[in-house]
Every structure is written in structure tokens, then in C-alpha cells.
Amino acid sequence: MPVSWKQPHGTTIDLALARHRATDPKRRIGSLLVNPGGPGVPGVDFTLNAPQYFSPEVLARFDIVGFDPRGVSRSNPVTCDGDLVDARSRLLHPDSATSFVALRKANQALGENCRAANGPLADNMDTESVARDMDAIRAGLGEKRISYYGISYGTGIGQQYAELHPHRVRAMVLDSNIDHSLDNWAYQKTSAVAMEESYGQFADWCARTPSCALHGVDARAVFGSLYKRAAAGEIVRPGELPGDPPETLTPQDVQDLVLHKVAGPGYWFELAQDLADLDSTDPAPARSLRARGEQGPFVVDLVTCQDYEFDVSSYRTLARYERELARIAPVTRSSSMAWAELTGCQNWPTEVTNPPHRLDVDGTPKILLTNSRYDPATPYSWASNAARQIGREAVLLTYDGAGHGTYWQSPCMRKATDTYLLTLKTPRKGARCPAIWPTAPSPQRQSPSGNLLNPLPDLLGTGAHR
């Protein structure tokens, strides 16, 4: 692939692909390209595990084709200095004009290091470039048209592919949607509302579920207490291993724990126990909630800061955002994921090459968008807005429960998605699938949808944002 699609005959990079061939080749429909999200999640691994994730019907009729996007895993992985990553990570929540200046300096230092270590690829990590890569993959496969299934950040790739190559689409499922039209404030507000509503669903579930570790207490009040105690430096846990130093949790650690586990109802029993343990007078040791560096892959900011114009003019603006978000989401305060995306892009040295815009899709077949009503990572409002932008080509199917990645949340969602991929028949306008709530602790990633495993929200903990 060309590093820059503006210079198609310039420097090139190789992309890693994997294909899981259709198990019923006589009835093969074609290739189903997949992307599991991120930015930064390898599609090759996702494809190699396709029999665990997709229904036998889909596996029979499609070659599942996944790729590691540019700069990810086996596809010319970008590397940045881990010490700079760590130093910057401690500054993502500035509390003064001075710390805001320090954040901007740290972001610039990290960004310049990434550019020096990775050459022109660092300036060409935007989602539109990935969408153009995907069409080169289509051509390489010899397919006139492709089917596509993208989850989370992968929906952004699909949306832009549909804009660029509408007549190359046979079918497209966009599961848990990105909204690339949002400005700074709208992005933060919608993310905070989704986090507040998702935790509210968890709290209500605990109240009616006797086996929840927080049953009989106010789970909303527990979160508020933990947040305040963490802000005061009062939650200190012993190290995970003998000899490890104790760990003092921050409010953002509490937010991160909740976001990653509330995104998958299969983790709710575990989340309740985690919060109960933290709320005890002697918090138990557990794995660190913060990622620790070393020289290694780093993708998120390289993509996000080329896709969104997140720079703000001053600390005063950030402080105003924080006050407003705490008013809108009085329990959870904000989305730690969205906030880190915003602050991580302050003074980032690469150009915004793929700025936010309303989708302009014309000429595709029907596109199926799916979203949970309560998804803390990709808010339902994002899917609704993306569907409106796409217009007559879009059909939005709503899962009335909670969770990130709808295909694995219920048999109803899986059946509707499979039917569309196999037959191109979409659900009726306004169709919804009923919620399924966890009733007993189960294997962490077991899906209510058949015997499949749910790869999400594990992928939210890999260092990728969505």
C-alpha cells in the first residue's frame, strides 16, 4: 500500500491479511471483510478466531477476511517511546493552566518522537487512508463488491468506505457506531451521557438482582464515594505481586474500571464485586488499572488526532467542559475514554488530515446499523445521527439492552444481522430487539447469542479506545 494515498507511487508498506475460507464453498457468497475496532486492534487475530465469533451460517457462506490496519501489529507497527507515553498519561487530566501547559508539551514531545520513529507513516494514519487500503484489499481479492462487518471504530472505516466506494458495497453492517461529524463539545457531552446512562442500567440491575455484590446498597452512591475517596488519594491497594509498590487509585482509574466492564453485561457480576472490594476498608490487590509503557506499539493518538479537531484554546475551556459534564452526568462525571481522546490531542504535531464531516453516502445498497441503547463506548445517539446522515440507504436496528458490540448481545440481534448478510433483507424500519440481562455469573466472554464468544469488551482493554 502507498504510505500516502496522495502519492500513490511513493513509499509503500505491506499489510497483513488473514482469510478464513467459507466452510461450504459451493454456496459461497463472497468475501466478508471485518474490522474489530480500536484504533489499534489487529484484524488478523480476529479472523483467525472467527469460528468462535460468527455463526455457522455466516462461516459457511463467506470467506472471512481480516487485516491489521496500517501501523497495527503485523502491518508495519508504529512504535513510540514508552517512557514518553507513560509521562504523558499522567498529565491527561490537567487541573490548572500550568498542568495544561505541561500536557501540551508532553503531547508534542510524544508526537514528535512517534514521527521520528516511524517516518511518513505517522502522518498518514487517518481513517480515510485505512478505507482506501480496504478497497485495495478488495481488488487484490478479485472481488467486484465486498460485504463488510465493522465494530466500534471499525464502523468509521465502513462509513468512509461507503462514501468513497458506494458501488463496491454488496452489504455493510456497522455495529456500535462512530459519529465522525461531532465537534469537541458534542463528542464529550454525548459520551458523558452514555456513560451515565450505562452505569445507571448497571445500578438498577444490581438493585433487582440478589446475587449482585452491591445488592441492597445504592450502586450510584458507591461510585460517588469511590470517586471522592480516589480524588483525596484515600484508595491505596497493595501491589499485585510481592514486592510491587502499593497503588494509589485516581478518580480516572475508577472511571476506567467501570467503563471497561459496564460495556459488557457478562462482566457485571465481576464489576459489582470489584466495586465492593474497592469500597472496603482494606482494598484487595488486583491487576493495575493503568497501562504501563516500554517501547512498543502506539496507535490511538496517531489516528484520533488526524480524524478530529480536538485542540482547545486554553485550560479555561477544559475546566468549563468539566463543570458542564459533571452537571450533565452527576454520578459518573464524564467518559474517561472520550476525555483522554480530547486531552491526548492537545498540541499534537500531526495535521488533521481527515477532519470531522457529515457523511455523504449515495448509491450503496441498504446499510444495516446496529447499536445498543446503553453503550458507554459508542453512544446510541451516535448511531442515530449516523443513520440520519446516511439517509435512505440506512436501516437502524436497536438493541434495547446494554453492551458494546450488538452481534453477541442477543439471538435476536444475531439473527437479524445474519439474515441481512446472507439475504440482504433488512429489518423493518424502527425494529428493536429486547434486552437480555445477566442472571448468574458465567464465563467472562460467553455470549447469550448461541455458543459464541463475545470478543468485546475485552478489546476495550487492549490500549485501543473503541
Short description:
The protein is of the alpha/beta class and 466 residues long. 41% of the residues lie in helices and 12% in strands.
User: Which structural class best describes the helix and strand composition?
Assistant: alpha/beta
In total, the number of strands is: 12
Strand order of the largest sheet: 1-3-2-5-6-10-11-12
The outline comes out as: globular
- Poorly predicted parts: 290-296
Radius of gyration: 22 Å
Number of helices: 16
Quaternary state reads: single chain
Helical amount: 40-55%
Main sheet characteristics? 8 strands, mixed
Q: Quote the beta fraction.
A: 5-15%
Mean pLDDT: 93
Calculate the terminal CA-CA distance, rounded to whole Å.
Answer: 25 Å
Overview of the molecule:
By secondary structure, this protein is α/β, with parallel strands linked by helices. Helices cover 41% and strands 12% of the residues. The chain has 16 helices and twelve strands. It has helices spanning 43-48, 50-53, 56-61, 82-89, 97-118, 127-141, 153-164, 184-208, 219-231, 251-262, 268-278, 300-307, 315-328, 336-344, 380-390, 411-423, and strands at residues 17-20, 30-35, 62-67, 79-80, 146-151, 169-175, 236-237, 247-248, 296-297, 367-374, 394-402, 432-433. The strands form three sheets. It has an eight-stranded mixed sheet, sandwiched between helices. A two-stranded antiparallel ribbon has the order 4-9. Helix 8 runs parallel beside helix 13 and helix 9 (219-231) runs antiparallel to helix 10. The longest helix has 25 residues, at 184-208. The two termini are 25 Å apart. 51% of the residues are buried.
